[in-house]
Amino acid sequence: MRWDNLSALPASVVPDRAAPATPPLPLALPGAVARTFDTPGFAGMTFYEVRAKSIINRVPASSRMGFDWTINPYRGCSHACTYCLEGDTRILMADGRTRALRDVAVGDRIYGTVRSGTYRRYVITEVKAHWQTTKPAYRVTLADGTELVASGDHRFLTERGWKHVTGAMGGADQRPYLTSGNKLMGVGRFAPPPADTPDYRAGYLCGMSRGDASVTDREPLDRTRRYLAEASPEVARLAAAGWIAAPPSVTDDWRKGFLAGVFDAQGTHDGVALRIGSIDRETIDEVAAALRTLGFEFAVRRTGGARGWYVRIVGGLSARLRFLHTTDPAATRKRSIEGLALKSNVPLDVVAVESLGVELPLCDITTGTGDFIANGVVSHNCFARNTHTYLDLDPGHDFDSKIIVKVNAGDLVRKELSARRWRGEHIAMGTNVDVYQRAEGRYRLMPQILSALRDFANPFSILTKGTLILRDLPLLQEAASVTSVGLSFSIGFVDEELWRRVEPGTPSPRRRLDAVRRLTDAGFSVGVLVAPILPGLTDNEESIDRTVGAVAEAGAAGVTGIALHLRPGTRDWYARWLGREFPSLVPRYRELYRGGSYLPKEYQREITARIRQAARRHGLDRKESFESRQLPEQPPEPEQLTLL
Question: Is 374 in a helix, a strand, or coil?
Fold first, then answer.
């Protein structure tokens, strides 16, 4: 494969007798721990956890790479993955609101669950990774009307444990799977949030005006100020007087706003009971009327000492969440369910599991707890499956199913950096196998590597497609304060439809551009590798201009373009993919690549010219290294990342 020309160097120039960058790696790895994970996304995959003898490997002069040393904590890559849920699926966020799965990002705080004593309990966790692809879709329908669109590999928590959407009683597909009568765990489908309409705003201000005491939460006060700034003079006058009367005729939007406002002003929610109290009976009656019209069950009681009344929502956690999601009060502290036991008092029995007969864009996330709350039920997060490897393994089945993980990479980096022979030379990562592939979300090798590079003030650079790099932004900033740190992203094109067909397991171009923007805002000079440029698909001037324009808008420091290389192994796999997806292009590729792995020099020069012209148009014609702005010289043309 691409690194088959690497060879061992004399011990005198290799720190602590580092091994060749790509030694033979037979399946019977001495001392390896073969591990599989109980997650659908890693189904059929084996991770060979090895304790490597060396980690900083030298790239020989015969290589076309623009650097001498590299670190590869993985062999093989898990970037292309099995995805699970439809992008519209609502996810329960840490602030108590919901968000579409496609809009959830790495670093977001959401709800998951952990077992504590007899029960699982709701806890706040963090999103570690997010990805998307297109897969055959299934609809799971529950007795309460909840519908979930997922892949067959996805798992949900039932009263009998985790179960896949589809499976079999025996044979190769044998695994626990959903059947009619299984009951999922959770609160049932989430209610949609209210629309931000003039009626909702008027109702909210009316509800806030009914408070018996001063409101101290910042969010309700900020919302009130914002609404008042856009309200009519009459409404502002009534608000200043401390009382806004309900209009003679109200809409559901007004009712939702009113309930949100009066809850922010007078409501409480301790995780067990949700109440709205007042010493004014008229306010209590208006609350009751709004709840009744919106279909909530409630009870009205006198407060202790008979000094007032309160309205209590009945129906358990599912009813309380429905109130919070339907009305959307501003005070986030009143929306917490952290620590509550996972119980299910709603009819979440599986009614049907049916194939939709089509492939749909499906998303998934990795979280700190290993699960999340999707449309009101507990959902198991998935991990990626691999699509490329640089092992000395079969590029067919092995290509898709075996990953080598150097679990001691962090310790080795620290050891080799401290060796007398090591001269503190620049180390490049990610140009062979992406160090921020999906498996990194589980193994977390990069924080250890970055910490060692920081502590020894050793210059380094990273090229990646993975937005997981944002997890390590604090470490990267610490390292940049003591040494040269170069960061580059690979973004071959911005066409989302083409991305789903070509790179379904990688973060979308939009998310990669967002990562470039965040890294730039953090003070890094981020380069972008427009690669691989695909003949007949992304090599036209329009595609290149759109890509370079988006890169410039994201704040990148410079761009470098590289056309597709097709080395042995990758060549055969790509040919099969091209014949399946774009058969009309097969004759052109045969002609272009008849001379070997690389495109004709004339074609490459034309692509380079198009990149340079687009860079000039968008202000990216500054001569900067894609490795690091602090390096003294422009490196030779870098190698591309793998296509998929």
Answer: strand
Cβ proximity of 392 and 25 under 8 Å: yes
CA 588 to chain centre: 36
Which pLDDT does position 76 carry in this prediction?
A: 65
Q: Assess contact for 341 and 119: CB atoms under 8 A.
A: yes
Nearest to 131 by CA among 471, 360, 437, 463: 437
Q: Do the beta carbons of residue 255 and residue 203 sit within 8 Å?
A: yes
Mean pLDDT over all residues of the chain? 81
Q: Give the Cα-Cα-Cα angle 577, 582, 585 (nearest 5 degrees).
A: 105
Give the Cα separation of 530 and 533 in Å (integer): 7
Place of tokens 């996330």: 365
| Averaged pLDDT for residues 443-455 | 96
User: The tokens of 452 are what?
Assistant: 């060692």
The torsion region of residue 508 among left (phi > 0), alpha (psi -120 to 50) and beta comes to beta
pLDDT-based confidence at 38, cuts 50/70/90? Answer: low
For 168-190, what is each residue's pLDDT tens digit? 877 766 788 999 989 999 998 89
Q: Is the pLDDT score of 258 beyond 90?
A: yes
Please tell me the distance from the alpha carbon of residue 278 to that of residue 35, in angstroms, as a whole number: 59
Answer for the pair 425, 68: CB distance below 8 angstroms, yes or no: yes
Residue 339 in 3-state DSSP? coil
Residue 72 DSSP SS3: coil
Give the DSSP letter of residue 335: G
CB 547 within 8 A of CB 513: no
Cα separation values, 308 from 265, 304, 305, Å: 15, 8, 8
Residue among 521, 567, 530 nearest 549 (CA): 530
pTM of the model: 0.50
pLDDT tens profile 51-105:
888 899 887 654 545 568 999 887 765 544 233 566 778 999 999 999 988 888 8
3 state SS of 386: coil
